[in-house]
Structures are given as C-alpha cells and as structure tokens.
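Input set for joint prediction.
Command: fold jointly, output tokens.
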Amino acid sequence: MKWGTYLRESKQVDGNMYAKNCPSRQVLDRIGDRWSVLVVAVLRGGPRRYGEIAATIEGVSQKMLTQTLRALERDGLVTRTVHATVPPRVDYELTGLGRSLLGLVAALENWAYTHMGDVLAARDAYDAR
Amino acid sequence: MKWGTYLRESKQVDGNMYAKNCPSRQVLDRIGDRWSVLVVAVLRGGPRRYGEIAATIEGVSQKMLTQTLRALERDGLVTRTVHATVPPRVDYELTGLGRSLLGLVAALENWAYTHMGDVLAARDAYDAR
DNA sequence: CTGCATCCTTGCTGATACTG
DNA sequence: CAGTATCAGCAAGGATGCAG
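tokens >
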C-alpha cells in the first residue's frame, strides 16, 4: 500500500501511532523522504536559490529536487518566491513551521555523527558471518 | 543512484552532510525507512515477538517486516533471539545503540502530533488553488 | 535560470504458496 | 509460529529534450 492512498483515505487524527492513518505516519513519510531533510538543512542558513540548493546537495536530480521543493511547499514548510527577472530567479525559504523542524534535523544529524561508527561496525560484523 | 551503491562505494566519513557518502545520509536512509521507526517504537516497551510486532503495526506485510527487522539487526539496533521450542518463538529487542534512537523517535512523534494540524491545513490550502 | 514533459529502467511492494 | 520463495504490478527515480 502506498502513502498516497493513506492520504486520500483519511486525514483524521486517531492518536494511534501504529494505525494506518495516523499523522505520525504522514510526517514520517515527509521526514523519511530522502531529500526533504537535506533541503531543510540547506535552508537553515536563510533563503536559497534553486540553483544553490541543487549545487549544495550532491546527487539530487533536477526532477527530485523540484518534486521535493513542491512537496515541502505544499506542506507549508517552505515558501517559493519567483522574481520576475530575466533570467528568472526563484528563492526558497523556510516558514515558521519549517523552522520548527530544525531542532529535529539537528538531532538527527547529531545522532548520525555520534553513532555512525557503531552502525558501520555492526554491519561489518553482521556481513562477516 | 541507490543507497546500496553509496554503501558499497565508500564507508568513510567526510563530515559534509551534503556529500554522497556522508554518514548522515546513511542514517537518514534507515530513519527514512517506512517501517524502521515504527518497529523501534514498538520495541520501546521491551522485547517483543515477531507476531506481536506484526499485529501492532497496521499495514506491514510479512515480507517487509522481516526485511526491516533484518536491516535493524544488521545495523546493530536490534537483537534477534530464537527459542528452540515448538512452535518456534523469536524475540526482538533493542540494543543499547537501538535505545539511543528512542529520544529521536520521541521527538519525531512529538513534532508530528504538535504540527500535523498545520501541515494538513497547509495541504488543503495548497490543493484549493 | 528554472522547471515541465516524456521515456525508460530499476527495484520496491504485496499476494500467494510453501517449509522447519 | 516464523519465516523463505516466487511472481506480477506499479511507482520511484534518472536522463533527456524543450519551454518560459
């Protein structure tokens, strides 16, 4: 079953994290997105142009970046500002809601740097068997 | 490019979160996994049998659950204990490393419940255009 | 510069059936 | 009970070309 299905089926909050329609799952879906967290992290430093974000995040395709930015915009986490210049210039910036995620992102980053060695060691040990 | 590729290509830490081989990305990959976080949350309450986990998490298939548990075990987040009884009984339990993730999971959950209303409202507003 | 449209490949995912 | 094996369907993601 896909997440799109969950969203279509219900938007209600039922308080059970393990239920299909739980908002936690929907948030997990966004956080879990491979690029969303990285984009939010980039925007931590203030507004950024499309090209700047693309240049900062290695390995993201144009398609995925645009798709991710649209999703973040839809969820009210970032704003998109188009400047009517030639060539066009588009700025993305975190909203208040988006900034409320920064603590989480920092915690995620922190856990990663703190425990990555353990995880890699565990993987090596597991694979050695 | 897939994550598997990253892991194969390099296991080094380079300190740049936006670089392809950054450990942050590898951790994000696991956190980002649809089921990993839910499984860790279930195991918060202590050891659980395979069937208990399956019954708690709605919508997870047997295949995905097994796959998720194996990945968590490989990463050193969960231990798997097989009891030689008939019928067999398999318990899963968080390791110390796994428990170090609990704060993050709680923060994630907390953000979800706190801001889900805003996100859903933003989506409605966006879709209405 | 920004980003939409299209094609195309990959592999995730769920359903089903079977085993120790 | 707790898996493994296999298969079909579909969606995610990348590459390319074009437009405003």
